[in-house]
Amino acid sequence: MARLLHYLKPYRFLVVASLAMVVIRAVIDLYLPQLTADIIDIGVVNADIPFILRVGALMLAVAAAGGACNLLGSYFAARASAGYARDLRKVVFAHVESFSLQEFDKFGTASLITRTTNDIQQLQMVVMTGLRMMVMAPIMSVGGIVMAVSKDPGLSLIFLIAVPILFVLVTFIARKGTPMFRSMQKKLDRINLVMREGLTGIRVIRAFNRDEYEKKRFEEANLDFMQTAIRVFRIMAVMMPVMMMVMNLTTVSIIWFGGIRIDRGHMMVGDLMAFIQYGMHIMFSMFALSMLFVMIPRAAASLARVNEVLDTKPSIKDPENPVKPGDKRGYVEFRDVTFSYPGAERPALSNITFSAGPGEVTAIIGGTGSGKSTLSSLLLRFYDVQSGSILVDGIDIREMTQKELRAKIGYAPQRAVLFSGSVADNIRYGKKDATIEEVRHAAEIAQAKDFVEKMPEQYDAEISQRGTNISGGQKQRLSIARALVGRPEIYIFDDTFSALDFKTDARLRAALKSETADATVIIVAQRVNTVMDADRIIVLEDGRIAGIGTHEELLKDNEIYREIVFSQLSEEEIA
Question: Which CATH code fits 332-574?
Answer without folding.
Answer: 3.40.50.300
